[in-house]
Every structure is written in C-alpha cells, then in structure tokens.
Design brief:
By secondary structure, the protein is mainly α. Helix content is 79%, strand content 0%. The relative contact order is 0.17.
Length: 401
C-alpha cells in the first residue's frame, strides 16, 4: 500500500490541539465516516432486490440514494450554523445515534415512502458528519501529521466500499436487504459509543455564520475547486449508482461474483485514497486533474468492455483506484484555499459533494430506465473528463481567475 501523505501545509491561524489519544480519535472519526458512507451507499449493492421487494423500478429504487444526497447537501451547510457553540463530540455522537435509528427504520420499511423518510434522516447524518469531522484532524494531531490524519479519516470512505457495501450486499443476498440495513444500524450504534469514549472535548472554535459561505464563494480558486468536485462526483455517481445492473449484463456474472467485483473495487479505493493523499499533499489541483482523467477514461472504456469479464474487471479496479483519491484530494485543495474558515470550507465541500451524489444518482436512474447502460456510462465519463478540463484550467491559471 502506498505510504501515507506528508503533512498538508497551509497558512492559517494557530490551533490548540485537544488533549487525549489523538490517533485513537482519528481512527474513531474514520469509523464514523465509514458508518455514514456505508449507509449512504448500501442501496447500490441492494438495488435489484430492493426494487423487486418494494415493487418499484430500478430508477425508482435509486431515489434511496438521491434523496439522502440532497438532504446531506443542505444539512452540511445548515448544521454547523445550527449547532454553533455545541461541543463537536456531542454533535457527532448525536448524529451517529440518529443514523442508527434511521437504519432501523429502513430495515422495517413496508413501502418505498417509509424507506425514503428514513433516508431523509440518513441525509441529515451524512451532511453533519462530513461537515464536522472533515476538518478535525488539525485539532487532534501535530501539524506535521495533519496530512496523514486527514487521509486516515477519509479512508473510512474507501473502507466502506471494501467492507461495508460488499458485506451489506452479501448479507442482502443471503438474508434479505432488510438485514443489511439492520447491520448498519448496529454499526452506527457501536461507533456512537466509541466516539463518546475516545474523542476528547471539542468545543467549537468559532460560530459558523451564513456570511462565511458567501465570503468563501467569492474566492476564485475555491470556486474552481468546487466546480471540479461537482462535475467529477456527478459523473461518478451517474454511473456508480447503477454499477450492479451494469455488471450483471456482463456474461458470466451473478450475485456472488458481483459482490466480489465490488470488493475488488473497494480494495483499489483504499489504495487510491492513500496514493491520492500523497499526490494531493504535493499539488492537490494536479492530483484531482489526474484522478478525473483516469476515472473518466475507465468509465468510458467500460462501454466497449460489456462482453468481456476480464476487461470489465480491470476497468472497474482502475475506476476504484481513481475514485479512492478524490475525497482527500478535493478536501486538501479546498482546505488550502480557506485555511481561516476550516469548518465553513468543509461544510461547503460536503454540500457540493452530496448535491453531486444526488444529481448523479437521479440522472443515472432516468437514463437506466430510458436509453440504458451505454448512455449512463457515456454521460458519467463525459462529466468526469470535463472535470479534468476544469482542473487543468485552474492548474494553469496562477491567480485562479
């Protein structure tokens, strides 16, 4: 596995580190991101059975991913403003307890509307955890270790792809999709307990006011970073939300093999997370450019690999490797442009990211129910390559205009 990245250096106000066990706290934050991302992405691996049991189309079942993405986008912006001076440890514990309740409601949902109501609560948790947890590394570890700690926190996203989604998919295939959601409820409850025990007190550094978002959006470099993230993540989730039906069309695949392929995708994502963190520590804009181009190319080539299991497997692994580095690279790019407004910057990042998830899932659903898989892959690839073009423009423009 590639070495972890060196520290991300960026000018900013001095930060008092919280006492306690810093690396244990970082690991628990990684577990929190793992828990919310596993819950968010779980419908990807259960889409076929979920749609059949609730008697809706595949695109209709995809709303279980679209809706929490939209709510998370709004929640990421509103929650830091709403909690103001509340200790961030308390906020994170409350969010994980709410996530456990939402997962349990999902497991018991008798129809799609009830499931979607539960997924609204999931969206609140996703947006809140991302907005609060993404910027905490600088408060927990020495400055020289911030880059490593940030990559470790975001590794929860990749591990969710390796363990969470494939295990949930396997459990769903063996016992039914409801037991998969019950499993994520138990996981969220356990993480809430760990957060309460391991995290030190984390009082708010300063209240986040709505005016902070306006000031940040006026920064041209940050704006270009957000546009790149929006295009890349929309393109990724246009295709990835419906990756199961895309893989099922390849000759020789079945439920067990699809789970194995998703596991391979996730393992590649973990490697990509740390490799991307290493590249981003040196030049985050260049890292995101390379990742966007690689992801777009892999997704586009899947159009021509539909009849070949080896080729589809290789391209899926390449896709996972590229996407694994996106979150940490994007967060590093945006944090270096807003060092004095870390939590507000993280909230904007989470808002744009989750809006893009929702838009991608919705768009992919409409294409899946209409033109079909080829259109899904082509649009996803096109958006990712357009993101690479924007990142290239930002990389060549010294002042970001």
């Amino acid at each position: 596995m590639p070495s972890t990245p060196p520290a991300v250096t960026s000018p900013g106000p001095p930060t008092a580190r919280a006492p306690g066990r810093p690396w244990a706290a970082v690991l628990v934050l990684a577990a929190a991101t793992f828990s919310v991302v596993t819950t968010e992405m779980l419908p990807v691996g259960l889409l076929t059975s979920l749609a059949a049991d609730l008697r809706v189309t595949t695109g209709g079942a995809g709303l279980a991913l679209t809706l929490p993405g939209l709510v998370a986008a709004v929640g990421a912006l509103l929650l830091p403003v709403a909690v103001r001076g509340t200790d961030r440890r308390t906020v994170l514990c409350a969010l994980l307890l709410l996530l456990a309740a939402a997962d349990l409601l999902s497991a018991l949902a008798p129809a799609l509307p009830v499931l979607l109501a539960a997924r609204v609560l999931v969206g609140v948790c996703i947006g809140g955890v991302w907005a609060v947890a993404a910027g905490l590394a600088v408060r927990l570890v020495p400055t020289a270790s911030v880059g490593r700690a940030t990559a470790l926190i975001f590794s929860g996203i990749a591990v969710a792809s390796v363990l969470g989604v494939p295990v949930g998919t396997f459990l769903g295939s063996v016992s039914g999709w409801r037991w998969a959601f019950a499993g994520t409820a138990a996981c969220a409850l356990a993480v809430a307990g760990c957060l309460a025990v391991v995290l030190p007190p984390l009082p708010a550094e300063r209240p986040v006011l709505p005016s902070a978002f306006v000031r940040l959006l006026r920064a041209p470099r940050l704006g270009l970073g957000l546009v790149t993230v929006a295009l890349l993540v929309t393109g990724h989730f246009t295709a990835y939300t419906y990756v199961r039906p895309l893989l099922e069309r390849v000759p020789g695949t079945g439920p067990a093999l699809v789970s194995t392929l998703l596991l391979a995708y996730g393992v590649a994502g973990i490697a990509g997370n740390f490799a991307g963190g290493t590249l981003a520590a040196r030049d985050p804009r260049r890292a995101l450019l390379v990742l966007s181009a690689a992801l777009g190319t892999a997704v586009l080539l899947l159009v021509f690999a539909a009849d070949s299991l080896p080729a589809s497997t290789a391209l899926l692994v390449s896709w996972g490797l590229a996407y694994g580095g996106v979150s940490v690279s994007a967060q590093t790019w945006l944090s270096t442009t807003a060092p004095h407004s870390r939590e507000a910057g993280s909230a904007l990042f989470a808002g744009v990211f989750n809006t893009a998830i929702a838009l991608g899932a919705f768009t992919g659903g409409r294409l899946t129910d209409g033109p079909g898989p080829t259109a899904v892959l082509c649009l996803g690839a096109g958006l990712a390559l357009l993101a690479a073009a924007v990142a290239a423009y930002a990389d060549r423009t010294a002042d970001g205009r």
